[in-house]
């Protein structure tokens, strides 16, 4: 079952975020900060929402959607972020189900497209995204952290 996450899912979502940061970037996140960040999205729904894939009462995977306004297109891009699937549930279509649900919701809401970040060397994830209809963008991301 794919559903919107609720604040009752916050502990699981925060744990997923911490696991993803450790797995993909070798970063250990501060648990209190991550918990506050997850709850912050529920407190400010204009920022976005989480979707979860649940089976037999267990959340197998999740992702977060945030919005980016495009004045060129007079519509929002939906950004897929904080994508995580439990290791034991990977390669079983969990992400594909989440992605298809997001795609349908974004189209129904009038979004102009979907975007996500992928680690430069994560060819497995890139292959998954390509298989679902995404393509390599022509932009390179720049950032400055604070």
- What is the strand tally? 5
CATH class: Alpha Beta
| Averaged pLDDT | 95
Classification by helices and strands = alpha+beta
Question: What is the tally of helical segments?
Answer: 4
CATH third-tier fold name: Aminopeptidase
Please describe what this structure looks like.
Helix content is 37%, strand content 27%. It is built from four helices and five strands. The protein has helices spanning 10-25, 31-43, 94-109, 123-131, and strands at 2-4, 48-55, 58-70, 75-85, 113-116. Helix 1 packs across helix 2 (31-43).
Describe the structure in brief.
The protein is of the alpha+beta class and 146 residues long. 37% of the residues lie in helices and 27% in strands. It has a single domain (2-131), classed as Aminopeptidase, CATH 3.40.630.30.
């Amino acid at each position: 079952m794919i559903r919107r996450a609720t604040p009752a899912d916050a502990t699981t979502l925060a744990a997923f975020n911490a696991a993803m940061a450790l797995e993909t970037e070798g970063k250990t996140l501060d648990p209190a900060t991550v918990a506050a960040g997850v709850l912050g999205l529920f407190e400010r729904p204009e920022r976005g929402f989480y979707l979860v894939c649940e089976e037999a009462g267990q959340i197998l995977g999740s992702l977060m959607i945030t919005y980016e306004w495009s004045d060129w297109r007079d519509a929002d891009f939906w950004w897929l972020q904080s994508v995580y699937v439990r290791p034991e549930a990977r390669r079983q279509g969990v992400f594909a189900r989440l992605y298809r649900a997001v795609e349908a919701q974004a189209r129904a809401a009038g979004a102009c497209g979907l975007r996500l970040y992928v680690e430069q060397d994560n060819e497995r994830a890139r292959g998954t995204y390509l298989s679902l209809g995404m393509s390599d963008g022509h932009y390179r991301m720049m950032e400055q952290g604070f």
